[in-house]
């Protein structure tokens, strides 16, 4: 079924959901997902974890572009479990349960685990990194992932601490002027990921205050940064999801 549509992905049973040692805390049994399928036979799948209640145009465009590259793109509706509109960030065990639901949705359709990637933004980018340390996936990309040195609330450990445990190739995109990911912390993460037994690449964009996929429109280099970051994402998945 090529094109874009909505579906529902069942959650795993309580005892296997979330991070190792964690537990699903709500009575949910499924998570809504948005799916973008390629027109041709799929090469694999990508689970997109996003930090927004709505799907902004930039995200929809990226999902469609990834589908054009041959991937089935699955985006769980992470905020479906949070009725409070004032909550703007998601993390914790339920986020990992939502990833697992998207992952299982893909494998039930015949997608092999090593051809499934994860792409996350902001704190969901942090989750994408952690997924790459304990899930059988093929590749991971994090954009503006926080919690590098000091763990986020509900994050059991910092990224620097678990970086050597990466099991899947990981790409990280950061803004050099982002207060949530200061350059010295990103440098520590770059060094820590280099000790893992998988490929890693940490990219920092000078002058960028936050996300590489959504740079400041007043920045003259914004278009170049966006194109470069998206090209790196496409190339990372193309090189590692085989």
From TrEMBL:
Transmembrane segments: none
Pfam families reported for this sequence: DLH (PF01738)
Gene3D superfamilies referenced in this protein's UniProt entry, alphabetically: alpha/beta hydrolase
SUPFAM superfamilies noted in UniProt: alpha/beta-Hydrolases
Domain Dienelactone hydrolase, residue spans: 35-238
Molecular function terms, GO-annotated: hydrolase activity
InterPro entries: AB_hydrolase_fold, Dienelactn_hydro, Dienelactone_hydrolase-like
Annotated region (Disordered), positions in chain: 1-30
Name used for this protein in its record: Carboxymethylenebutenolidase
The species this protein was found in: Nocardia ignorata
